[in-house]
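check this one:
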Amino acid sequence: MRIMIAAAGSRGDVAPYTGLGAELRRAGHDVAIAATDTFEPLARDAGLEFHSLPADTRVHGDVTDRRDLIRTASAFITQLGQGFADAVDKGTDLLLLSTTTAPLGWHLTESTGTPSLGVYLQPTAPTGDFPPVVTGTRSLGRLANRATGRFALRMADRVYAQAVAQLRHRLGLPPASPSTLRRRQEQANWPILHGFSTALVPRPSDWRPGLDIVGNWWPHHNPEERLSSELEYFMSAGPRPVLITFGSMASGDGERLSEIAVQALRRARLRGILQTGSAELAADGDDVLTIGDVPHALLFPRLAAVVHHGGAGTSAAALRAGVPAVPVPVTADQPFWAGRLAALGVATAPILFRSLTAERLADSLDQAVKQQSYSQAAATAAQHMATEDGARKTLKAIQQMTDG
């Protein structure tokens, strides 16, 4: 079977699908990933075909400002829609659609008859259990949570409106709004598999049939890959260090964040590793090392704690490694995941990015590293996650879907 996984966004929105794709390929399927050009090396390294999606993944404007974020998202989605149909092979037998690409992929399914399945990294369906992932962490009560969840979906529909109109015209389909297609998919119980752990988000009891949580899809990495000799030397030269990373966030803030990071580490008397990322963190010293991209699975189990932006992938990787976290969420779904980590007892209370100081970071690091409750809770969550196999469950769901 020819399977295409369509995903778009930052690295954390794409990398998990390389592990899923590699598992499907081992099961005998031909697998391609459609993503923006930045992620072609990730797909190729996993042994997958790559198809280019036309969009600029660079963040523009102030992503901590909601209006700027919506404008950026709308421009990104409009770009994405312009070449979305070109990325899908005519011989594709099954489309796997991410949270970002599903509202576009549904129209290809309608036009071509190609079956599709949702593979989401965030819980987007309204529920009384918690508020929408894009509105923060404070519960408003069951009725209000569901109401705001529906409102969040309507706001997302607005972001997709122009791209959907252009795509349907291109495909020769009659006009239909994003909300019309979404409601149609909901009424048909369109299946969505969610690639995160029930340790963080148990399946809400009020979700409709067809919505399932299968466990994480982990980014592919070569099992023969090892840490660099420089990093190995640093790891063995003293107590377990703390990793500080903002992933694809905080572009242009590198100098300020690097200074805060080093000051916080030294106030807390901890060794640290700064991961460059989009922020371009950097520092020198016997107690600090700067690194580039390193597979989480190799590094995280050897850390004392992780300071991160609360992205879904980094949050899960730290949890899988049984390592406490200090979340510093920046935007989008990051406050949601940061709040879930704190509620689980595996992370300190989130520090909002705009209010980050060396003093606050040092205090949180001191808690995360020295209070055993955090590492104990993280170890318990890691044991839970070890029982989940998101890729295998997805493969089984695909087999059931195609056999039916």
